[in-house]
Amino acid sequence: MSPTSPRRAAVLGGNRIPFARQFGPYANASNQDMFTAALEGLVARYGLGGERLGEVVGGAVIKHSRDFNLTREAVLGSSLAPETTAYDVQQACGTGLENAILVSNKIKLGQIESGIAGGVDTASDAPIMVTEKLRRKLLRVNRAKSTAEMAKKLLAIRPTDLGIETPANTEPRTGLSMGEHMAITAKKWGITREAQDELAAASHQNLAAAYDRGFFDDLMTSYLGLAKDQNLRPDSSVEKLAKLKPVFGKGEGATMTAGNSTPLTDGASAVLLGSEEWAAEHNLPVQAWFVDGEVAAVDYVHGDEGLLMAPAYAVPRLLARQGLSLQDFDYYEIHEAFASTVLSTLKAWEDEDFCRDRLGLEKPLGSIDRSKLNVNGSSLAAGHPFAATGGRIVASLAKMLHEKGPGSRGLISICAAGGQGVVAILEGA
Amino acid sequence: MAFDYGQFVSSGIGKQLATTLGLPRPSRLRRHTLGGSLVPGEVLVAGHGDAPVAERVRHLLADAGVTVASQPSTSVAGVVLDLTAIETAADLETLRGVVGPALKVLAPTGRVIVIGRPPQTATSVAQAAARRAVEGIVRSVGKEMRGGGTANTVLVAEGADTGVDATIRFLLSGRSAYVSGQVFSVSAPVADVVAPADWDQPLAGKVAVVTGAARGIGAAIADTLARDGATVVAVDVPAAGGPLAEVANRVGGTALQLDVTAPDAGSRIVEHAQARHGGLDIVVHNAGITRDKLLANMDADRWGSVVDVNLMSILRMNEALIPAMNDGGHIVNVSSTSGVAGNRGQSNYAASKAGVIGMTAALAADKRVLDKGITVNAVAPGFIETEMTAKVPLATREVGRLMNSLSQGGQPVDVAETIGYFAWDANRAVTGNTVRVCGQMLLGA
C-alpha cells in the first residue's frame, strides 16, 4: 500500500435510459443495445466523444453466452475511444454499485484517472436454454466425426429430452423465488401490508414529482421512444394499492403484492467517475465524492437470516469504518427490491436484539428520518433492471447531494440475490 | 418508397414526359464542399459609374483564387454587378446591358449578384425609384434562371462597403444553393470584421448553442456549425434525448436536455456553455413546433403552445443569454416563409414566425446587443426536405417542392449554411436581416 493516503474519487454525473416493463418498448433490445445507449447518452452529456477513459465496468445479471465481452462490445459500439478498456462484473442486483466501488477504488489508488461504472439487464431478451439432457446430447452430435455417427447421436434424442428453460428468479440452493424468501423475512419482522403500500405509493409519488421538476433532465436519455420510466404511476395511492391481491407468501398473513414488489424491467445505467484533476481538466464539476463501499453476505441457506438482509450487516461495518452513525446522513437510498425489504432492514437496525446478537453492537443503530428516504422515488416506481439499479442510484444521489451542498452525506443500500448486499457512502461536493 | 417527382423527371421516360409537357425539371444544386473552390469558374464583375464596390469584389475574388472577367466570355460561373452609383432609372440600362448577355453564357448553378444602395437613403425621389427597381429586376432574373442558378440583391448602406465581403463570398459559394430572390442589407459593422484564417473553418474556436438540435433542420445546423469549426451545445427536450445524444456525439459537442419554455432555460444554457466550454459566441434559436388548425377551430392550447415555444421562449431565454454572450457574438433566429406569406391552418405558427421577424429587426437595433457588438438575424426556411415534410400528403408535398424558382425542396443543410454565414465574425455588417431559404418560393414577398 502506498504510504500517502489515497486521493478522492469524484462522481461527475450519470445517465440511464428510462426503465421499461418486461416485453415493453425494449422487448427487442439486447443488453448490448441498451448499455450502448446508456453510454452514448453519457458521452453526449459530458462531451466524452473520442475520449480514452481509464475503464468502463458494466455487466448484466441475465446474460447470453455470446455476450461474454458485453461491456467491451458496448464500448466499441459507442463514441468513446476504442482504446478504452472494459470488463464485466456480475454480483446480482449489487452489480452496478459494486462496479462503482471498483472504479472509484482504482481512481483513489491512482491506477486510473476516469471511468464509467454501470450495468444493464433485460427481462425481455432473455437467453433460452435447452434441457440439460438435450444439451449434453447435442454436444455429442456436434462432436460426431461422420454423418452416420451424427445421425446416430441425433437419434439418441428422446421426446422427453425436449424442452426449453429460461432464467428464473429463483435461488438455486433453496428453490424458493426471491419473493417467497422475502415473504418469510417480512413475516418474521412483522411488516404490515399497510406499511408496504405506503412505501410503494410514496415511491411513485416521489418519482413523479422528481420528473415534474425536471430532476431527470440531466440524468436520463430517452430510448426507443420511451422518455420516462414505464412503470411509474403518478396517481398511485395507498387506497389503490390496497386492492391488489398478495402474490408472495401464503394465507392470511400474506402481504406482498405486485404493487409493493418491483416488476421485471429492462434498462441500463452508467455513472462517470474521475479524479479531481481529471474532472477539472475536462471542465466537469464534481457532484459528489465516492467515499467508501462495503459488501456483506449472509447465510440464508443453512442459517436463519433472510435472503435480502445482507445490507443490514454491511451498513454497520461501513459506518464503523467511517466513524459515522446511521443518523449522520441527509439522504438514504435503500433499494426497494420489495417494500418489505426496506422496512425489514430499517426495523432490524432499530431492534436491540438484532443489533446485539447479529451485529455485535452495544446498542441499536436506531431509526432514520423517513423524510430523507428515497426522496426521488426508488425501484418500486422506477423499476429494477437488476444490474442497472446501482448506477441509477449513484447518479441520482450524487446530484441530490450536489444540490444540497458540500459536506452533505448519502447512504446507499442494495440487496442482492445469493444473500449479498452492497452499500456505499457518498458525500456532496 | 414514396414518389419523388425530382427523381422521376431526371430519368428516362420521366425526362421525356416532362420535356413534352413542359413540366419543371429540377437541377442539381451546387453545395459547399470542404476544400472546394469558392465558385467553379470565372466571375464577371462590372458596375455603373465609378462602381466603388466592384473594385472591392475584384480584390476579394483575386484573394480567393477566382478569375475575374470584365466581359462575358464563353462561360461564366457568376455575375457581380455594382449599381451603387446609379442616379435614375435610366441607369438601369447598365444592368440590362451586362446581366442580359451574361445570362446566355452563365454556367449551371450560376450566380447573379446585384449590389445597390438602400432606397431609404436616396438623395432624390428619382434615385429612390431606381434603387428600389433593382430588387424587382433581380427577383425576375431569379425566376428566369435555369440550371440551379440564383439571383440576389445586396444593398450596402453608404459608408459600409467594407462589410460586403462576407455576403459576396456566401452568395457566390455553394453555401447559398437554395437562397434566391433575396435582399441582403449590409450596414456599418457592429464590431470589427475578422476574416477567418481558413475559410473552410470560419467558426473555429467558437461555442454555438443550437436549440431543437435532435433532428431535421436543427441537427443539420449542429452538423454544419461543427463542420465549420464551432463547438456545439445541442439542446432539445428530454423526450428527444436519444436522437439528441446521437447528434451531439456525431459533432463532438455536448447534449443539454431542456425544454426551451422552462423559466430557467436561458440560465441553464449559459451555465452549461460557460462551465463546460468557457463561454458562448453563437446562439441559434431553432426549436419550434406546429399545431395546425383552422383559426375557427383553434383552441387556446394549440394557440398558446406554438406562440410560447416558437416566440416567447426566445424572448425569455435572450434575457439570460445576451448578457452572458461573448462580445461580437451572433444570434440567429429561425422564422418561416409561413411567417412571411401566411399559411392556411397555421395562424398560430405564422403569428410566432412573423413575430420572430419583428423581434429580429428590433433586437438588432437594441442597445444591449449593439453595445456588445452582437448581430441578430433570422432565416425563414421554405419547403425543406425533412421527416416533417415527408409526412405531408403527396399532392401538397409536390406543390410545396415545385412552387419555387429552383423547382425542388431545399435540404436542411441549406438552412444551416445561411445560419452559419450569419454567425461568421467576418460577417458583422449584416444584422437585423431576415433571409428566406426557399429557392425563391412563389408565395409571399
From TrEMBL, chain A:
InterPro entries: 3-ketoacyl-CoA_Thiolase, Thiolase, Thiolase-like, Thiolase_C, Thiolase_N. Keywords: Acyltransferase, Transferase. Residues 10-277 form the Thiolase N-terminal domain. The active site is at C93 (acyl-thioester intermediate), H384 (proton acceptor), C415 (proton acceptor). Residues 304-427 form the Thiolase C-terminal domain. GO terms for molecular function: acyltransferase activity, transferring groups other than amino-acyl groups. GO terms for cellular component: cytosol. It holds the Pfam family Thiolase_C. Belongs to the thiolase-like superfamily. Thiolase family. This is Acetyl-CoA acetyltransferase. It comes from Knoellia flava. The lineage of its organism: Bacteria, Bacillati, Actinomycetota, Actinomycetes, Micrococcales.
TrEMBL record, chain B:
Pfam families: adh_short_C2 (PF13561). This is 3-ketoacyl-ACP reductase. It comes from Knoellia flava TL1. It comes from the Bacteria. Belongs to the short-chain dehydrogenases/reductases (SDR) family. Residues 206-382 form the Ketoreductase domain. Its EC number is 1.1.1.100. Keywords: Oxidoreductase. GO terms for molecular function: 3-oxoacyl-[acyl-carrier-protein] reductase (NADPH) activity.
